[in-house]
Amino acid sequence: HPELKTIKGILENPELVGGRFHNCPVGWGCRIVNDNLKVVHALEANGVEVFDHGSGANLGASIASAFADDAPWFGYYWGPTAVLGKYEMTRVDIGNINAEQHAINQKADSPASSLGVSGFPSAPVLNAVTADLAKREPAVFKFVQNMSFPNDVISKMLAWKEANNASADEAAAWVLSNHTDMVLGWVDADARKKLKALM
Hints:
Structural class: mainly alpha
Distance between the termini: 43 Å
CATH architecture of the largest domain: 3-Layer(aba) Sandwich
Shape: globular
Radius of gyration: 21 Å
Order of helices and strands: HEHEHHHHHHHHH
Strand content: under 5%
Number of helices: 11
CATH class of the largest domain: Alpha Beta
């Protein structure tokens, strides 16, 4: 059902998503935004019940249950997470990202008349070290500057780590084994040569 890749398609076919939107629990930043977007998109008026989950664990369990039952699931989940590494999901286009509108949608006290359509912008993720470490270990600092993971790689690594009860060192080895070219792109020629010799 390719029409379910957009909010318009879902609102025209609510039965295909089980007639339900799985909302974030209270305390998650997405909860306020989703509470405002359910008004903007008139979810309930269009046959989509909004179900507010009490915890992140319950929200994740609802995805696992839907996959186990081969049932539809429509809702919000953030990434990268082990849940998104374990279950293949499709992102629904809820509208173009408008940073100014999203900022309004993030406020619980925004008047209904000010709410509007905006997708969720990506949150910035920064690699950081202390000034002392950067000065003392320039090679490590350069490595940290170059290091960049796509969300799907982190999600799959977290799912593997959880499924295998693996340590952080084992997860790092999994990333190196499964995404060698990515990791080799973070290091200089000498380190690349040493890493290749270990593999």
